[in-house]
Write a structure and sequence with these properties.
heterodimer, A: alpha/beta, seven-stranded mixed sheet, three-stranded antiparallel sheet, 12 strands, B: alpha+beta, two-stranded antiparallel sheet, 5 helices, about 20% strand
Chain lengths: ~400, ~160
C-alpha cells in the first residue's frame, strides 16, 4: 500500500468488510430501463395518511427539539403497552425500552453494548444483510446457523447446537425472517431457549415482521420462561406500518441492558428524530386498521406468487409471514447469481440472489411481493418464459446441476 | 361474501382476467361470482368515477336537504323511493338529524336544478320543506383524490 493510498487510513475490520450483495445487484438493476423489481425489501404502500398527518401536526406545534435519549415517555408507554398486549412480554417504559433510528440501529447498539472483541455471535443464515457485518463492526465473530427449505426456514434447535462452539455469547434470530419468510415454531424456540439458558447465551430477537403473519400465531422467544432476562427484543414500524423512510424502531430489554444500549445510543445518535417519534406514537394508537388492510393485500399477493411459482415448476415453500417468497432455483441448473442476472438481462425482472443474504442462500432467490398486482402478474409471466427457455435449451441443464452440486 | 367481492372491496381497478389470475380461478368462475353478487343485490353496477370539477359538460350538483312527513306504516320509504326514481337524482339517503332525506341532484345547469326542486320535488305531497346547496368544488370523489400533489412512489429498485 503506497503512502498516497487513502486506503491506508481505513480500519482493518472495515476494509475487510464485503460490500452488501444487494448493493452490487442494485447497481446492475438501476442501469437498466423498464425493469419490474421484485427486489425491494419494503412495502409499496405509502405510510398511512393519519400517521403522516400527525407528523405534520407535530411540526406545526414546533416539536423540533431533542427528546430524552430513550425517546419520548409517551411513545415508550405505548411501546410497552403494545409489546405486552401483542407479545405477552412486560417491560417498564421508564427503564426497559429505548427508541432507535430503525431496527438497524437497535441491532447495532445491542451488539456494541454486549460484545467484547473476539466474542462469538450465532446468527441464522440466510438472514438480513446487516447482521454479520454489524457483528464484525462490533469486533465480534459471526457464526452462521443453517436454516433450510425442508423445515420452511425456521431455526431448528439442533442446528443451533451444531453451530455453537465455545466462546459463543449471543444468538441473533429474526423470525419471521427476511429473506426466507421462515417463522418461529414454538417447540423449536422452547428448545433453543433451554439451550440458550444452558450455555448462558443472550438472545437478540428481531421481530420486525411479526404483524405480517398470515397463518398461525407469532411467538416471541422473549415470552418463554426464563428468556425475558436474557433477550433483547427488537421491533419497529418500518414494515407493518409502511414507515421505512422514517427510520424508527425500538429495543426492549432488562434495565441494565437498556442502560448499556442507551450509553452507545446517547453518544452516537442522541435520540431518534422527534417527528418520527410522534408519527410512531400515532401509529401505535390508531394504526391497527391500516396494518390489517395492508396485510390482507400482502397475503393475497403471496397466494398469487406461490401458485404461479408452482405452475412454473419452481419449488417454493409457502411463507407464513413477511412479504418475501424464497423459491429454490436449483432445478434450472443455475446458481443464484446466474439466475438473477440472466433473468434481469433476458426478461427484465429483478430478484435478489439468495447469496446476498448469506452462504446458505445459494440455490435460492428472494422475491419481494410488496408490489402491485399488474407488476406481479407480468413478472410471473416473464419468469415463466425465462424458466421455460432454460428448459428448452435442454441438455446442459443437468450438466450444470451436476456442477452446482460439486461446487457445494 | 365471495372471493371476488372481497377483492373488489379492496378498491383495486382490476379486469376479470386479472381477478382470475390473482384468485387462482378461471374467468368463468369470476364471471359467475360477479353475476351472483349482482343477483344478491350486493353489487349494484359499474360506473366510471368522473372528476366533478372538469369535463366538457357543465355539471351542477345540488345537495338538497328535504323534510318530509312520515307516513303511518311506511315511514319515509314511500316518499324516498318516489324521489329516488327521478333520473335527475344521483343519490338519496335517509338521514338522522335536522332533516330527513339528503338528495343529490346532478344537472347541466343551475336553472335545471332549481326547476327540479321547485316544480318536482317541493310539489310532492308530504314534502314539508327543502333547502338546496350547490356544490362548489370537489376534493375527493368516491375515494379518489382530486387535484392534489400526486404521491411519489420513489422506492429504490433494490433494497435489503
Amino acid at each position: 500500500m503506497s503512502q498516497e493510498d487513502p486506503n491506508r487510513f481505513i480500519a482493518d475490520h472495515v476494509i475487510g468488510l464485503p460490500r452488501s450483495g444487494i448493493r452490487d445487484f442494485f447497481e446492475l438493476v438501476s442501469a437498466m430501463k423498464d425493469v419490474i423489481s421484485l427486489g425491494i425489501g419494503e412495502p409499496d404502500f405509502t405510510t398511512p395518511w393519519h400517521i403522516r398527518e400527525a407528523a405534520i401536526y407535530s411540526l406545526e406545534k414546533g416539536r423540533t427539539h431533542y427528546t430524552s435519549n430513550l425517546g419520548t415517555i409517551e411513545l415508550r408507554r405505548e411501546i410497552c403497552r403494545y409489546v405486552d398486549e401483542q407479545f405477552g412480554i412486560g417491560y417498564d417504559p421508564k427503564s426497559e425500552t429505548i427508541v432507535t433510528v430503525g431496527v438497524s440501529e437497535a441491532m447495532d447498539i445491542a451488539l456494541r453494548a454486549i460484545i467484547n472483541p473476539g466474542d462469538k455471535v450465532l446468527y441464522q443464515d440466510p438472514c438480513f444483510v446487516s447482521y454479520h457485518p454489524t457483528v464484525t463492526l462490533a469486533h465480534g465473530i459471526g457464526i452462521a446457523i443453517k436454516t433450510e427449505a425442508a423445515s420452511a426456514f425456521t431455526i431448528k434447535a439442533d442446528a443451533v447446537k451444531e453451530a455453537w462452539e465455545p466462546g459463543c455469547k449471543a444468538l441473533i434470530i429474526n423470525l419471521p425472517c427476511n429473506p426466507t419468510g421462515g417463522v418461529a415454531e414454538k417447540a423449536e424456540l422452547e428448545e433453543i431457549a433451554r439451550f440458550a439458558i444452558e450455555k448462558d447465551l443472550i438472545v437478540i430477537s428481531d421481530e420486525i415482521y411479526a404483524e405480517l403473519t398470515y397463518e398461525g400465531e407469532h411467538v416471541s422467544i422473549a415470552s418463554l420462561p426464563g428468556m425475558r432476562e436474557r433477550t433483547i427484543f427488537l421491533h419497529g414500524w418500518s414494515k407493518a406500518w409502511a414507515m421505512t423512510g422514517w427510520r424508527i424502531g425500538y429495543a426492549c430489554a432488562p434495565a441494565e441492558l437498556t442502560e448499556a444500549m442507551m450509553k452507545v445510543h446517547q453518544y452516537s445518535m442522541m435520540c431518534a428524530s422527534i417527528i418520527a417519534q410522534d408519527a410512531a406514537l400515532e401509529a401505535m394508537k390508531n394504526g391497527a386498521d391500516a396494518v390489517q388492510k395492508m396485510k390482507v393485500q400482502y397475503k393475497r399477493r403471496r397466494d398469487l406468487v406461490i401458485r404461479r411459482f408452482h405452475e412454473i415448476g419452481l419449488v417454493c415453500h409457502k411463507p407464513q409471514a413477511t412479504f418475501y417468497a424464497f423459491p429454490n432455483i436449483e432445478s434450472t441448473g443455475l446458481t443464484s447469481t446466474e439466475f438473477a442476472t440472466r433473468l434481469l438481462e433476458e426478461e427484465k425482472v429483478a430478484m435478489v440472489p439468495g447469496t446476498a443474504f448469506g452462504k446458505y442462500g445459494e440455490g435460492f432467490v428472494r422475491c419481494s411481493f410488496a408490489t402491485g398486482y399488474d407488476d406481479l402478474i407480468e413478472a410471473c409471466n416473464r419468469i415463466e418464459r425465462f424458466v421455460k427457455s432454460l428448459d428448452a435449451s435442454g441438455s446442459k441443464f443437468s450438466e450444470n446441476a451436476e456442477v452446482t452440486r460439486l461446487s457445494n | 361474501m365471495n372471493e371476488v367481492f372481497k377483492l373488489l372491496a379492496e378498491g383495486e381497478r382490476l379486469n376479470e382476467s386479472q381477478m382470475a389470475e390473482i384468485l387462482g380461478l378461471s374467468e368463468k368462475d369470476v364471471d359467475a361470482q360477479l353475476a351472483a353478487l349482482q343477483e344478491e343485490g350486493l353489487l349494484l353496477g359499474w360506473i366510471p368515477v368522473l372528476n366533478p370539477s372538469t369535463g366538457s359538460d357543465n355539471i351542477v350538483r345540488g345537495v338538497i336537504e328535504v323534510k318530509v312527513t312520515p307516513e303511518r306504516g311506511g315511514g319515509f320509504n314511500r316518499l324516498a323511493q318516489r324521489i329516488a326514481r327521478f333520473d335527475e337524482v344521483e343519490s338519496c339517503y335517509l338521514m338522522s338529524g335536522a332533516y330527513d332525506l339528503l338528495v343529490v341532484v346532478k344537472q347541466s345547469s343551475l336553472h335545471k336544478v332549481a326547476s327540479f326542486v321547485s316544480e318536482r320535488l317541493s310539489t310532492i305531497e308530504g314534502i314539508v320543506s327543502t333547502a338546496t346547496h350547490f356544490m362548489l368544488r370537489a376534493y375527493k370523489e368516491q375515494g379518489y383524490l382530486i387535484e392534489q400533489v400526486e404521491e411519489e412512489k420513489d422506492r429504490l429498485d433494490v433494497t435489503p
